[in-house]
């Protein structure tokens, strides 16, 4: 486990370099997801670091599904899944082999 705060990136890199699998937590809240997946967002940064450090198995947890509009929106989940899949494919993951799990 490595916290997502920027102050802990060094710890995240250390932990990730020893991992066999990564669980990438993505916030589903409006604005939160968009910030994370933006050009300099932490979602992108963490996924890229995980792949670069040799973690070839990835699970994506779509968190805060209770804060979507409406709560637990399947449409929002699918939108996030599509956008994250597009990005992780670009960096080398096979989105078909990545589990996306809605959580709260």
TrEMBL record:
Swiss-Prot/TrEMBL keywords: Elongation factor, GTP-binding, Nucleotide-binding, Phosphoprotein, Protein biosynthesis
Signal peptide start-end: none
GO molecular function: GTP binding; GTPase activity; translation elongation factor activity
Annotated ranges, domain Tr-type G: 1-104
Pfam families linked: GTP_EFTU (PF00009)
InterPro entries: P-loop_NTPase (IPR027417), T_Tr_GTP-bd_dom (IPR000795), TRAFAC_GTPase_members (IPR050100)
Entry annotated with the keyword Glycosyltransferase: no
Keyword Cell inner membrane found: no
Name of the protein in its database record: Elongation factor 1 alpha
């Amino acid at each position: 486990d490595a916290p997502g705060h920027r102050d802990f990136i060094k710890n995240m890199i250390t932990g990730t370099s020893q991992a066999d699998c990564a669980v990438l937590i993505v916030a589903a809240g409006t604005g939160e997801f968009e910030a994370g997946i933006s050009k300099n967002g932490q979602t992108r940064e963490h996924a890229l670091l995980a792949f670069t450090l040799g973690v070839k198995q990835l699970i994506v947890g779509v968190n805060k599904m209770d804060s979507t509009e409406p709560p637990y929106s399947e449409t929002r989940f699918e939108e996030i899944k599509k956008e994250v899949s597009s990005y992780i494919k670009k960096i080398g993951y096979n989105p078909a082999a990545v589990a996306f799990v809605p959580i709260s």
